[in-house]
Write a structure and sequence with these properties.
- Chain A: Keywords: Oxidoreductase.
- Chain A: InterPro entries: Formylmethanofuran_DH_bsu, Mopterin_OxRdtase, Prok_molybdopt-oxidoreductase.
- The complex is a heterotrimer.
- By secondary structure, chain A is of the alpha/beta class.
- In chain A, about 35% of the residues lie in helices and about 20% in strands.
- Chain A is globular.
- Chain B has a single domain, classed as TIM Barrel.
- Chain B has a seven-stranded mixed sheet, with helices on one face. Chain B has a five-stranded parallel sheet with strand order 8-9-10-25-26. In chain B, strands 11-12-13-16-20 form a five-stranded parallel sheet, sandwiched between helices.
- In chain B, helix 4 packs antiparallel against helix 5, helix 8 runs parallel beside helix 9 and helix 12 packs antiparallel against helix 16.
- Chain B is globular, with a radius of gyration of 22 Å.
- The mean pLDDT of chain B is about 95.
- Chain C is built from four helices and six strands; from the N terminus they run E-H-H-E-H-E-E-E-E-H.
- The radius of gyration of chain C is 14 Å and the shape is globular.
- By secondary structure, chain C is α/β, with parallel strands linked by helices.
- Classes of the chains: A alpha/beta, B alpha/beta, C alpha/beta.
- Chains A and B meet through helix 3, helix 4, strand 8, helix 5 and helix 12 of A and helix 1, helix 2, helix 3, strand 18 and strand 19 of B.
Chain lengths: ~450, ~575, ~140
C-alpha cells in the first residue's frame, strides 16, 4: 500500500511551503506523487527516488577517476585534511538542517576552520546592512493578514520563489485582508520586466545599478522635499505616485532580493532600503524582508549566531574565539587571496555558483564535497561524501526566510548506508579527537587555565 | 553512586529558615539527602564560606529569536573580545552572550535555573534548539499571551474556560511554562504602528482593554492552577508618569487569591518594576518607588522583580514592539523588529546606560530603591531584565549595591549629575543594607516559590535537586571592602548541578546535562477551542497546525510538571 | 550593425534553471536553461544576429559561448542577462567590493557573434577550468 504523508515541508526555496502531500511506495523508497509543490519542489522529490544516487563516499584516484570507499575511510580522510590544514574553509549549508549546521560548527571550532554559508555570496550584503541599520521586519503571516501594499524590489519570486506570492503576499486572503489580491497594491521595481512585474499594479523600471539613487529619491519625497525630474531612469511623477502609496498604506512589506545584493553598492542598497522602512514607520506601518534563497539558508545565520555571535564568514582559526570581517573572512575573498588550504563544500555547489576564478584558486588544495547529489563541486572534488537529502530523507528544523522555524519531516528512507550531515560531522569531530589523542596533539587553548571576562564599559 | 557532603559552611536556606547556621549538606545521586543516608561521601570543606541553593532567575532573556537577533546584529560587541576557552566551547558576546557563555556564566555565579521571559509561540522550535545547546543550567520558557488573537477574543467575552483550554493547548504545543503578558494589547496595536498607552485604551479591532486582558489572564491562570502566576510586563513601559498605570495594573489583582498545588501565593508577578516606577514628565522624571512599594508591601498576592540598570552598554529587547520603536527614535541606533502573526511582536535596540546621563542615573537609583524598600524579600527579586537594563553577569554588582551603602555612595559620587539625581530619588536617604539571608530570598528561595518549583529548586531540603552554590564569603566576618562581595558572587568557589561539581574556583570543570522544564495541563475537551484553532491555522497562520506544535524529537531532556485542571 | 557590442551584464535565477538544477547539472535541461544570454531585440539587431545564434561573451576575467535569445522577461537596450549557473560564472568577476559577494550583476561584457563555435557542456566548463576534463 502506498503511503500518503501530509504537511510535508519543501526543501527548495525560502518560502518553505509546508503543505505538501507526498505519496510514497510501500517500501518507503520511491516517491509516487507530490501534491501542492511548485515545479521545482516537485522535481526535488521525484529526483530523490530516481536511480543512480551515490550511496558510498568516492575518493579521487591518481588517474583522475573516483573509487568507492567506506564512510569510516571518508571520515578519517576528512579529519586528517582538517588537522593538516592551517586554515580550512567549510562553506555551504544551503541544503542542510540546523542539527547539521550545529554539528558543523562544532567541527569548525575544533579544527580551527573558517565557517561560512551561501549568504556569503547571496544575502551577505543584507547582514552587513543589518549590522549597521537593524531590520524592521515581521513574519510572513503578518504580511498575509495585514498588508495592503507589497513591494518587490530587485527580486523575482515568479522564478526564484514560485509560491511566495500565492502563499503570503499578493493573492492570499488574510484576517484583515479578506479581499485578497483586490485589496492590495503591488509595486515591482526591477530593471527587467520580469514575470513578477507582469502581476504588478505599478512597474517601476529602475536603471540597473542605480537602486540606491532611487531609494534616496523616495526618502527625499517621503520627507516632503523636492527631487530632479528623473532619477535612476524613473520619472519624477512616478516616484511621487509610488511614494504617496507607500505613505498611505495601512501595512506594507518590502521584499527585496539579489537585485540589491549583487549590484554595485551591495550592502548600501540594503542599508538605504532599511532606512526607508524606518522613515515610513513615522507615518504608518512598514516592514522589510530579504527574499532568502534556499529553504534553510536562514538557518546557518540563526544557528551560528547563538553559537558564535556571528551569522557567516566566521574565522575560528584561533579556536578559542571567533572573528568575522566580510571582505576579509568571506569565502570568495579568502579563495582569491589563497588564504585557505582546504575546502569543504557542504550542501551547495561552489563549482557551479562561485565565479570560476575562485574555483580555480580553491582547487589548488584538498577539496571535499558533502552533498547528496552529483554536482559540479562533486565532479572536481578529491572526496565526495554523499548524505541524505534533508526534508526528504532526513527530518529536522529549518528556518524560513522570515526566520520562523519549520519542522521538516522524513518521507523516504535514504539509500542503504547513507547517513545525515549531522551524523557525518559528529563522526568527523569524534575522529579528530581520536587522531589528536593518538598523535599526542594537545589543544593549547583548551588546556589553558584562568579566564578573563571582559565587559563593555569597563 | 556519587555521594558528597558539604561541611562547615554557613548555610542560607530561606525555604527551611536556615540563617547562616553551620549545617552539613548531604548529596546522593543528584539529590539532597539526610546526612544519615550517606555511606562513603567525598567531602567539600566549605569552612569560612557561604552555602546556598543554586540560583533561580525568574526573568531573563537568554534563548530564542529576539535574543539571537541581538547576537546576530551586534558584531561590534565581539570585536575586542579576548576570552580564554576553558569549557568545551568558545565563549562569545557580552550583553548578549552565546548560548555557551550564557550557561557557563550563570553557573559561575552559582545559578542553576533560568526562566526565559518571553517565547513567541510560533518560534518555540527555535527556543528549544537554543535550550539544547545551552550548557549546565535548567531552562523554562514562558510563551507570550497578552496579544494573542485567541486570548483577545476569549477575554473580550470573558470566556475563561475557553481561554484556559487554549492556554493549556499552547503550553503543550510550545512546551512552555506559564502565562507571559507583554504590553497587553499594545503589541497587537503595534501591528498597525499603534500602541495601548494605558490599561483602559482598547485594542484596535479587538475592542478589548488591557485591563480585561490582565484580569482575564489572572482568572485563567488560577482556573488552571499553574505553578507560576501570570507574569506581566505592563503597559507604558519606560515613560515618565507611568507609575499611575503600574499601580492601576497592580490593583487589578485585588480580590484574587492563588489556587495551586505548588506553594505559590501570588496571582501576579510584575516584572522589571524599575521601568514602571517613574513619576514626572519628559526628561524631568522622578522616582515613585515609595508609592509603588507601599502598595506591593501591603499586598501579599503580588510579587515583583527589579530590572536593575547596571550602567553598561547593553542590548534592549522586548516583545513590546512599540516601545522599541520609540527607543530607536531616542538614541537613533539600529532597530530590529519582528511582528509575529496572531501572537506578539518584538523589537531590539542597542542602548548605552551611562553614569554621565542623569536619566540613566535616576533609573539606577529607582531600581535599588525597589530592593531596599521591599519589606518582604520573598516577594521582591533581583533581576536586570537581562539584557534590557544590563547583562545578567552584573547580578553580583547589584548584590553589592544592595548589601553596601558605601558602595552605593561611591557610585553616586561618580555620577555627573549627582545632586540632581539625589533630588528626584530617595536613594540617598536609605541606609538599609541587605543581609545574605535576604539575598538568598531574592535570588533563589523567593523566585523558586513564585515560580512554583520550590519543591525542586531554590532550597537545600532533602529530596530537592542537589544544585548548590558555595561562595567565598565568611558570613561571620563579612569583608569590609564591598568589592569582595561582588567578586565572591561573580565566581563561586563551587557550583554543583544535580550533585556534580560543574564549577570550581570560578571555573567550569564539568558540563552536566541540563533540562527543559515545562507545564502540562489537563483540561476538559473543548470543541469550540479546537474549532477556533483549526480555523485560524486554516486561514490565518502561515504554516500548518500539524507543523506548529513542537515535535517530541525537538524537546531536550524534559522535566514535565503535570497539572490537572480537568476535575 | 557592429561586430562587437558592450553591454551591462546581470546574472539571476530563472525557474527553468531551478527545475533543471534539481534534475541535475549534467542534464540537457540544465544546459538549455543556463547556456543562454537574454538581450534586447535592438541589441540583437545591432549585432546582426540570427535567432538563437551563438555568441561569445567576454568580461574582464574570461569568456563563454552562449546562445542569444530575446527572452520573455525583457531587458532594456544595453542590459543583458545570463541565468545564474555554470556559464554565467565563467565570466562573473570575483571582485566583491569588500563584502564577500562577487560582482554577479552589473559588469561590462562584450558580445560578438560566435558562429561556427560550440557551447561547452557544464562539466567541460568546470572540470576544464581545473584541469580535470578528459574530453568525453
Amino acid at each position: 500500500m502506498p503511503k500518503k504523508i501530509e504537511n510535508v515541508g519543501c526543501p527548495y526555496c525560502g518560502v518553505c511551503c509546508d503543505d505538501l502531500v507526498v505519496t510514497v511506495s510501500d517500501d518507503g523508497r520511491k516517491v509516487l506523487e507530490v501534491e501542492n509543490a511548485c515545479a521545482i519542489g516537485n522535481e526535488i522529490f521525484q529526483h530523490a527516488s530516481s536511480e543512480g544516487r551515490i550511496s558510498l563516499p568516492r575518493l579521487r584516484q591518481p588517474d583522475g577517476t573516483y573509487k568507492d570507499i567506506s564512510y569510516d575511510e571518508a571520515v578519517d580522510y576528512a579529519a586528517r585534511v582538517l588537522i593538516k590544514a592551517k586554515k580550512p574553509l567549510i562553506f555551504g549549508f544551503g541544503s542542510t538542517n540546523c542539527e547539521g549546521m550545529a554539528a558543523a560548527a562544532k567541527v569548525a571550532e575544533k579544527a580551527g576552520a573558517v565557517l561560512d554559508n551561501c549568504a556569503s555570496i547571496c544575502h551577505g550584503s543584507s547582514f552587513l546592512a543589518i549590522f549597521d541599520n537593524g531590520y524592521p521586519s515581521c513574519t510572513l503571516g503578518e504580511t498575509k493578514n495585514r498588508a495592503d501594499v507589497i513591494v518587490y524590489w530587485g527580486s523575482n519570486p515568479a522564478h526564484a520563489h514560485p509560491r511566495h506570492m500565492s502563499r503570503y503576499s499578493i493573492f492570499p486572503r488574510g484576517f484583515f485582508t479578506g479581499k485578497g489580491h483586490k485589496g492590495r497594491k503591488i509595486i515591482v521595481i526591477d530593471p527587467r520586466y520580469t514575470d513578477t512585474a507582469r502581476v504588478a499594479d505599478i512597474y517601476v523600471q529602475v536603471k540597473q545599478g542605480q537602486d540606491y539613487d532611487l531609494f534616496n529619491a523616495f526618502r527625499t519625497v517621503i520627507r516632503g522635499e523636492d527631487i530632479p525630474d528623473e532619477v535612476a531612469g524613473v520619472k519624477k511623477e512616478q516616484i511621487l505616485q509610488v511614494a504617496e502609496i507607500l505613505k498611505k498604506a495601512r501595512f506594507g512589506t518590502i521584499f527585496y532580493g539579489m537585485g540589491l545584493c549583487h549590484s554595485d553598492g551591495r550592502n548600501h542598497n540594503v542599508d538605504i532600503a532599511i532606512s526607508m522602512t524606518r522613515d515610513l514607520n513615522d507615518f504608518t506601518k512598514w516592514t522589510i524582508m530579504a527574499m532568502r534563497g534556499h529553504y534553510n539558508i536562514a538557518g546557518p545565520g540563526v544557528v551560528w549566531a547563538w553559537t558564535t555571535g556571528y551569522p557567516y564568514c566566521i574565522d575560528m582559526s584561533k579556536k578559542d574565539r571567533a572573528y568575522m570581517n566580510p571582505g576579509e573572512t568571506s569565502s570568495v575573498d579568502l579563495a582569491m587571496r589563497d588564504e585557505v588550504d582546504a575546502f569543504f563544500n557542504v550542501g551547495t555547489d561552489a563549482g557551479a555558483h562561485f565565479p570560476i576564478e575562485a574555483v580555480k584558486h580553491l582547487k589548488k588544495h584538498p577539496w571535499i564535497t558533502i552533498d547528496p547529489n552529483i554536482c559540479m563541486a562533486s565532479e572536481i572534488s578529491d572526496l565526495h561524501i554523499p548524505v541524505g537529502i534533508v526534508g526528504v530523507e532526513v527530518p529536522g528544523i529549518v528556518y524560513r526566510m522570515d526566520n520562523v522555524p519549520i519542522q521538516y519531516r522524513q518521507v523516504l528512507n535514504p539509500p542503504d548506508g547513507v547517513i545525515s550531515d549531522e551524523e557525518l560531522f559528529e563522526r568527523i569531530h569524534q575522529r579528530i579527537s581520536e587522531i589528536e589523542a593518538e598523535e599526542g596533539i594537545t589543544q593549547t587553548s583548551a588546556a589553558a587555565a584562568g579566564t578573563q571576562t571582559s565587559f563593555v564599559g569597563e | 553512586m556519587s555521594e558528597i557532603i558539604i561541611k562547615n559552611g554557613f548555610v542560607f536556606d530561606p525555604l527551611q529558615g536556615i540563617r547562616g547556621d553551620k549545617v552539613d549538606i548531604a548529596i546522593k545521586d543528584g539529590k539532597i539527602v539526610e546526612t544519615t543516608a550517606l555511606t562513603n561521601p567525598k567531602t567539600i570543606d566549605a569552612a569560612g564560606m557561604t552555602v546556598m541553593a543554586g540560583g533561580v532567575d525568574i526573568h531573563s532573556h537568554v534563548v530564542g529569536p529576539k535574543v539571537n537577533t541581538g547576537r546576530l546584529f551586534r558584531p561590534e560587541e565581539k570585536l575586542f573580545q579576548n576570552i580564554k576557552k576553558t569549557g568545551s566551547r568558545m565563549e562569545m558576546g557580552t550583553s548578549i552572550p552565546s548560548v555557551y557563555k550564557t550557561g557557563y556564566d550563570y553557573a559561575r555565579m552559582g545559578y542553576s535555573y533560568v526562566n526565559e521571559a518571553a517565547m513567541p509561540p510560533l518560534h518555540s522550535p527555535h527556543v528549544h534548539e537554543e535550550i539544547r545547546d545551552t550548557p549546565i543550567i535548567d531552562i523554562s520558557a514562558m510563551p507570550v499571551f497578552g496579544n494573542n488573537w485567541f486570548s483577545l477574543e476569549y477575554l473580550k467575552n470573558n470566556e475563561i474556560e475557553n481561554n484556559a483550554a487554549y492556554t493549556a493547548w499552547l503550553l503543550r504545543a510550545t512546551r512552555g511554562f506559564g502565562i507571559k503578558i507583554v504590553n497587553p494589547g499594545g503589541s497587537e496595536a503595534w501591528g498597525w504602528g499603534l500602541n495601548c498607552a494605558n490599561i483602559h485604551e482598547p485594542v484596535p479591532y479587538f475592542d478589548v482593554t488591557p485591563a480585561q486582558i490582565i484580569t482575564g489572564s489572572i482568572e485563567t491562570n488560577e482556573y488552571l492552577g499553574l505553578p507560576h502566576s501570570i507574569h506581566i510586563h505592563p503597559n507604558n513601559l519606560g515613560n515618565p508618569g507611568n507609575y499611575v498605570d503600574t499601580l492601576e495594573t497592580l490593583k487589578l489583582a485585588e480580590g484574587y487569591t492563588a489556587k495551586n498545588a505548588f506553594g505559590r501565593t501570588q496571582v501576579m508577578h510584575l516584572t522589571h518594576l524599575q521601568f514602571h516606577a517613574y513619576g514626572g514628565e519628559g526628561f524631568n522624571f522622578e522616582s515613585k518607588v515609595p508609592e509603588i512599594m507601599d502598595y506591593v508591601n501591603s499586598h501579599d498576592n503580588i510579587t515583583v522583580d527589579i530590572g536593575q540598570v547596571t550602567l553598561d552598554e547593553t542590548t534592549t529587547m522586548t516583545a513590546d514592539g512599540p516601545f522599541e520603536h520609540h527607543l530607536r527614535a531616542v538614541n537613533n541606533l539600529k532597530w530590529a523588529n519582528v511582528d509575529v502573526e496572531l501572537e506578539t511582536a518584538a523589537g531590539v535596540v542597542p542602548f548605552v546606560y551611562s553614569a554621565n546621563n542623569k536619566a540613566n542615573a535616576v533609573q539606577w537609583a529607582i531600581g535599588l530603591e525597589i530592593g531596599l524598600l521591599a519589606k518582604d524579600p520573598m516577594r521582591t527579586y533581583i533581576t536586570t531584565d537581562h539584557p534590557n537594563a544590563g547583562p545578567f553577569t552584573r547580578y553580583p554588582r547589584v548584590i553589592k549595591w544592595l548589601m553596601s551603602q558605601a558602595a552605593r555612595e561611591a557610585q553616586m559620587d561618580a555620577f555627573k549629575h549627582r545632586d540632581k539625581v539625589i533630588d528626584v530619588t530617595n536613594i540617598a536617604g536609605i541606609d538599609r543594607e541587605l543581609t545574605l539571608y535576604e539575598i538568598a530570598q531574592m535570588t533563589r528561595a523567593g523566585t523558586a516559590k513564585a515560580l512554583g518549583i520550590a519543591d525542586m529548586y531554590g532550597g537545600l531540603a532533602p529530596g530537592m535537586d542537589a544544585d548548590v552554590a558555595i561562595y567565598n564569603l565568611n558570613a561571620e566576618s563579612m569583608p569590609s571592602d564591598a568589592e569582595e562581595i561582588e567578586k565572591a558572587f561573580s565566581r563561586c568557589a563551587y557550583m554543583l548541578k544535580d550533585g556534580i561539581v560543574a564549577v570550581k574556583d570560578g571555573e567550569i570543570v564539568a558540563e552536566p546535562a541540563k533540562r527543559t522544564i515545562w507545564v502540562d495541563v489537563k483540561v476538559p475537551e473543548n470543541a469550540q477551542v479546537n474549532r477556533d484553532i483549526y480555523e485560524h491555522f486554516l486561514k490565518h497562520y502561515s504554516l500548518k497546525l500539524e507543523n506548529y506544535s513542537l515535535f517530541e524529537e525537538h524537546l531536550h531532556n524534559p522535566r514535565v510538571i503535570e497539572v490537572n485542571a480537568a476535575e | 550593425m557592429v561586430d562587437k557590442l558592450t553591454l551591462n551584464m546581470i546574472t539571476q535565477r530563472s525557474i527553468e534553471e531551478g527545475i533543471a538544477m534539481e534534475k541535475g547539472k549534467t542534464t540537457q535541461e540544465y544546459f538549455e536553461a543556463c547556456s543562454i544570454i537574454e538581450m534586447n531585440e535592438e541589441d540583437i539587431r545591432t549585432l546582426g544576429l540570427l535567432p538563437n545564434q551563438l555568441v561569445r561573451v567576454t568580461s574582464e576575467c574570461g569568456s563563454v559561448i552562449v546562445k542569444a535569445i530575446k527572452g520573455r522577461q525583457t531587458v532594456y537596450p544595453g542590459l543583458a542577462h545570463i541565468p545564474q549557473g555554470v556559464w554565467s560564472n565563467q565570466i562573473v568577476p570575483p571582485r566583491t567590493q569588500a563584502t564577500g559577494e562577487p560582482q554577479y550583476s552589473g559588469f561590462p561584457v562584450t558580445v560578438e557573434s560566435a558562429r561556427g563555435e560550440k557551447r561547452k557542456s557544464a562539466l567541460e566548463c568546470v572540470q576544464g577550468a581545473v584541469g580535470l576534463w578528459n574530453g568525453e
